[in-house]
Please model this.
Amino acid sequence: MINKLIDIVKEAGSLFKEGYNSEKLIEFKGGKDLVTQYDKEIEKLLIQRCSSFFKDFNIIAEESQNNTGEFGNSIIIDPIDGTTNFVNRVPHCAISIGVYKEKKSYIGIVYNPILNELYSAKAGEGAYLNGKLIHVSSDENFQTSLISTGFPYTGATNKNDLDWVIKNLQRILPKCQDIRRLGSASIDLCMVANGVYEGYYEINLKPWDVSAGILILEEAGGKVTNSHNLKYDMFNDRCTVASNGKIHDKLISYLED
Ligand code: IPD
Ligand code: CA
Ligand code: CA
Model:
């Protein structure tokens, strides 16, 4: 299944690259939340291919099937994770596909066609970047840790969410090496998996933002929890905390709900 999925994301990657370099039709789903015709077309192609090859799975997809079907044996798709980057030609954007069997992570693929970076993992078999095994960093020191985060779209309208972002930047920035906000949650998780970042946190992520990256990070030796350091539930938890495992407790202790 993983090889077929890689063929499918590579096929969708051609459309992604074409769109990245073209004029786009932009619609707003919310104050800040963009969607282009390429989000919809890439998603359509991915759904068509996945439903014809993997008939035992239902599909949950951001733009068209985001509240259909029971989560169980499921393929969860984000056709473009990092649409704001895609629209502005910032090369941090990706196709993310997470496959679940009986609600357990089975396969994760995050493909950035612009930088030609394909992260993949299958449960129990390690995590890979372009076919090479990757591993989280071994840094245990929070002060030298590079941390990534994201700013939820809801911060435009929800003062609590904006306050959460500012408050936690104030708390964490002085204590770590620095903070990055590159604009694609799936790639953020993969960059922790690849040892680039030591940690990552964000609120209000959706299952399609993280469905693939969680497995890739765990298979690379990392950890994902909610802000109470408990097992992360991508459907219900407000806060996602990810790390190399070594700085996890510190990151949790500095975060304030
Ligand atoms: C977004 C990106 C971004 C994160 C947002 C997500 P989208 O996904 O992952 O990094 O900060 O919360 O919604 O909208 O580009 O698919
Ligand atoms: Ca997304
Ligand atoms: Ca998206």
